[in-house]
Specification:
Length: 321
Amino acid sequence: MQRRMLGAAAAGLLLPRGLRAQALGGGRTMRIIVPYAPGGATDSLSRFLAPRLSRLLDLNVVVENRAGGNSIVGTEAALRAAPDGLTLAMIDLAFVVNPAMYASLPYDTRRDVAPVGLVASAAQVLLLHPEVPARSLAELVALAKAKPGQLSFGSAGAGTALRIAGEQFRMAAGIDILHVPYRGGGEAQAAILAGDLSMTFSGEAQSKVLSDSGRVRPLAITGPRRGRRMPEVPSFAEAGYPEVDVVTINGLIAPARTPPAVVQQINAAVVQALREQELEQRLLELGFEIAASTPEEFAAWIGQQLPKWDSLVRRAGIRPE
């Protein structure tokens, strides 16, 4: 499937040279807006991808952090930009969760968006502060039930994968744990290292670094399988909680009415960049799996995700902070 998607999207690089030149290039500046503070997974992914897109598209690609509003501020800034392909947003799971949480958004998740393509995905590891006396998921659940509301978990915002993973765990285990939102995943990591949180979720690569340093204790990874970088950590499914399956998904979107030829050109460049062994290795080191797609496949994915997370948000009672 991955090879099929890579091949289909890469076909866009075969556009006639004249059409490509008309669409993008000429050393102009492209912005990739990251709707979070610096330091998180979405920010890191964007900064690894940017220089490769610069080379492939003959553009000066820069990353701009516009944090706030559970990723809404940065996403709106991108979608309100000129539809010329020179402003993109690197969205994550919050993009398809926010419509269920907010009575209204300053943009329409379907109508105002030109999906460019999925980029990468990453499972999430549950990290515990070392002072929390639990050595397994079962012990953590027992502790949380004995001390309802006294344990806390941090996230990058109400609709992010970190929050969704925490809510999936809370509901599956039937426990009462306090949610503490931050502006980005990097801030949540800093909080647990400072002892301000009992637990948080993080990507596998970051989790391994923190775990190896002894500053956190990893208990489980989301999804059905163990991770490649931390094979000693059981999956939530293995530990008896298959419902905790959320992964971080990142993808690029452009404003609606961006010319299809421009969208195709950017998509093809993204796919070609993701096929580079060096970038793939760097992303694997960060805990990402390549998740390239065509624009049409990305649009279909968005349509499938919206009802899934609408159901979870309603059951969990998640509200904007």
